[in-house]
Amino acid sequence: MGAGHGHGQHAGGRHRWRLAVAFGLVGSFFVVELVAGLVADSLALLSDAGHMAADVVALGAALAATRIATRPDTTGRRTFGSYRAEVFASGLTVLLMLGAAAYVGISAFRRVGAEVTVSSTPMLVVGGLGLLVNLVALVLLRGGASESINVKGAYLEVVADTVGSVGVIVAGLLVARTGDAWWDTLVAGAIALFVAVRAVVLGREVLAVLGQHAPTGMSPSDVEAALCGVPGVATVHDLHLWTLTSGMHVATAHLVATGDSDTVLLEAGRMLRDEFGVEHATLQVESDARHCSELSW
């Protein structure tokens, strides 16, 4: 028996145009920044270009996820739809971010004690342009970030890259003022560390979803207690909670009921939706738990 079924319209689909424009802007500027970083031999520019590459993938993945998630299943085998495309795309973003951070970190380490000449002019020009591009992308994505967690993820990626652009400008000013390329290496290392930390945090979220952990901020014991508080429910067992994709939580449970089964289903489903945001709950009502053969897991 099921209760609380239905996801509604995919919110990210309404904001595809925002993602598409931001993707075009950031993708185009990534090429400019990468070439400028190689020409100027600036690790700060290269590290920010690596971070921007992760932004390009994140925005592209967000675009693809909104398309795939709303695509009808013609095989009849995808019983949960294709919503997990977003999770796999996020995993790819994590790998790219870690790769970019490792490359810049190793390059910065190799520069320690070496004589390096860095041109500050390209750093300042490209860093300023990058900041402008990121600000435009932020304005575009902010309009959909409050409705779609997919768009919100892309928005937060661009926020972080804006910080990187500021770092490039600061490094360019310090190099121009002091003539010491060490500042470029230091800022590049800081950006690489920032990207790596964010990649680890995002990676943990991806693994938690793929591992079917209980949704963040949702305690299984609290959900069990709330279900037991539904009128007509005596006990609860075999409770499972997990996340299908960002913002889509799923629950299954067996309820031993002393009241009317239909009423118990309606009230339990309503409670899960209203109190925990679980819109897809599959609930089984039983009159006696002894007739339920639970699995060992």
Automatic annotation (TrEMBL):
Membrane topology qualifier: Multi-pass membrane protein
Keyword vocabulary terms for this entry: Ion transport, Membrane, Transmembrane, Transmembrane helix, Transport
InterPro entries for this protein: Cation_efflux, Cation_efflux_CTD, Cation_efflux_CTD_sf, Cation_efflux_TM, Cation_efflux_TMD_sf, CDF/SLC30A
Compartments reported by the entry: Membrane
Domain of life: Bacteria
Cation efflux protein transmembrane domain segment(s): 20-210
Ranges of residues in domain Cation efflux protein cytoplasmic: 221-287
Keyword Hydrolase belongs to the record: no
Transmembrane residue ranges: 19-39, 45-66, 87-109, 121-141, 153-175, 181-201
NCBIfam families, per database record: CDF
Family (UniProt): Belongs to the cation diffusion facilitator (CDF) transporter (TC 2.A.4) family. SLC30A subfamily.
Protein's recorded name: Cation diffusion facilitator family transporter
Organism name: Nocardioides aestuarii
